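Quick start: read one record
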Amino acid sequence: MRLLKKGLMSSLALITKVLNVLDGLLDKKVDLFIIGGAAAVLGYGSTRTTRDIDTWMTVPPEILEKWAEAKRLSGVDLAIDAVSIAQAAYGVEERATLLQMPLKNIRVFLPSKEDLILMKISRFSDNDREDIAVLIKNCNPEYLLDLYLREFIPYAVGNKRMISINYLEMIEGAFGVDVAEGQERVLRANNYF
């Protein structure tokens, strides 16, 4: 992690480097669904530092078998973990996009930027907020609300009112008070606030 701490290589360069080395170690095709900060960095222009690659539900065993060797050969000390407590909108896998990378054995999938935003509002940490600020550019607030109401909040675990407060704070920061107040009325009408 020395390169990352000194700021000599971006997270994008480090993730790409370890995935390229890993790809060369694999002898069969493997799908990898990346979420979290690594997805924001790889697919959506986030420049923040990330120390791991989070995956949706599972890390394929072929990748786990070769990960330590890929880290050693690449000189990149990033962890890879299956995130078992992430909340996502129903249908996240159907909306996922294949990331175009010059890899022969790994197909990298990312959630849509809207799905990634919704994954981040439950925890809403400083890193999540930083990623959301990048992700939400050029998003349609009506589409976000529709996705939130149809496929996220009905299935969310935890305090749905708190999640909705986080959602509205995000909407207000990106689209202004008027849009947030209009969406709050819709959330109240649907008993999610």
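The radius of gyration is 18 Å.
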